[in-house]
Specification:
alpha+beta; two-stranded antiparallel ribbon; 143 residues; 5-stranded mixed beta sheet; globular
Length: 143
């Protein structure tokens, strides 16, 4: 087995934008929830299963890095609008979801609020690299 020495450059990008005022545990939780939606709807983002030298199998993961950004509440609203305008696949996490405990209630909490009034704390987008870059314009990489 040989490992390529040149890093792969992808035509697509997976990006998560988090609101900058989240607690560390919230950042991790929101990121995990957001990216889980991408793999279920976009099978092309998932690579091959893993196995160690003993043959123990492991689940496949994304085939490319997930870039994490942060921004203000206003930046999330702007990015959300841009993602909608470009029809990019996206996942949202609103502040209301911190108070729910299951998928049914999560979906109901999002459904109860018009899109332009969502209190976004996180957004994941996937698409062509240039389109995602334009959608995230002004956001900065998470430290």
């Amino acid at each position: 087995m040989t490992i390529e020495s040149t890093p792969a450059r992808f035509d697509t990008k997976i990006a998560v934008l988090l609101r900058e005022d989240l607690e560390p545990w919230q950042r991790l939780n929101v990121t995990a929830f957001l990216v889980s939606g991408l793999g279920t709807e976009l099978p092309e983002v998932i690579g091959e299963p893993y196995a160690d030298a003993d043959g123990t199998p492991y689940l496949p993961m994304f085939r490319q890095p997930v870039l994490v950004f942060q921004g203000t509440k206003e930046a999330l609203t702007t990015t959300h609008g841009r993602a909608l305008a470009r029809a990019l696949p996206r996942a949202v996490f609103t502040s209301d979801l911190f108070a729910t405990g299951n998928d049914r209630d999560n979906r109901a909490a999002v459904r109860a609020v018009p899109g332009n009034q969502l209190d976004l704390v996180g957004l994941a987008v996937y698409g062509p690299r240039n389109a995602v870059d334009k959608v995230l314009k002004g956001a900065r990489m998470h430290p």
